[in-house]
């Protein structure tokens, strides 16, 4: 049983279940039998994902929530749906799972996110890149913007 996020009781019932398109996630709509409020839970297949090697050499488990939070922050007030973000992170997880590597550099994850954001929305891309690349000054930031504009202009020819 799942604990109700409103009253913390464990008495609840499933009122609807739906599987994702790829069948890797089950969304369950539940109703608390104590307070009668409804909430949603997600059941995911437990994946064996690689450890992430950070810039300073530390290793930490692959963290889907951290990736979603970073992308959401970059996409704040932009026309990008949570569904689109979730589907992209699903595809990232699947990609890294299928690689069957024990470790992956966080730079690879960051670059893949930036590639996708560049396709989706330039503002979200610049927001993410500015945090991810930790620009030291405005000149580094301007260089990134100039590269982006250059590649966009080349693509429209």
Quick tags:
157 residues; three-stranded antiparallel beta sheet; three-stranded mixed beta sheet
Descriptive report:
With 157 residues, the protein is an alpha+beta fold. It has two domains: 1-45; 47-155. The protein contains five helices and six strands; from the N terminus they run E-E-E-E-E-H-H-E-H-H-H. The strands form two sheets. The chain has a three-stranded antiparallel sheet, with no helix packed on it. A hairpin with a 5-residue loop joins strand 4 and strand 5 (59-61). Helix 1 crosses helix 2, helix 1 (64-74) packs across helix 4 and helix 3 (106-120) packs antiparallel against helix 4 (122-132). It is elongated and about 60 Å long. It starts with 11 loop residues before the first strand and ends with a helix.
- Percent helix, as a range, is 40-55%
Q: Which structural class fits the helix and strand makeup?
A: alpha+beta
Average pLDDT: 88
Strand segment tally: 6
Shape: elongated
């Amino acid at each position: 049983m799942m604990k109700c996020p409103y009253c913390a009781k464990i008495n609840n019932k499933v009122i609807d279940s739906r599987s994702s398109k790829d069948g890797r996630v089950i969304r369950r709509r539940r109703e608390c039998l104590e307070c009668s409020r409804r909430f949603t839970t997600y059941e995911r297949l437990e994946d064996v994902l690689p450890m992430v090697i950070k810039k300073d050499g530390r290793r930490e488990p692959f963290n889907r929530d951290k990736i979603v939070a970073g992308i959401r922050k970059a996409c704040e007030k932009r026309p990008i749906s949570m569904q689109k973000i979730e589907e992209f992170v699903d595809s990232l997880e699947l990609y890294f799972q299928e690689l069957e590597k024990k470790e992956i550099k966080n730079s690879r994850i960051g670059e893949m996110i930036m590639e996708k954001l560049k396709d989706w929305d330039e503002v979200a891309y610049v927001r993410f890149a500015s945090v991810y690349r930790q620009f030291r000054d405005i000149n580094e930031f301007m260089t990134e913007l100039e590269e982006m504009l250059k590649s966009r202009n080349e693509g429209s020819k």
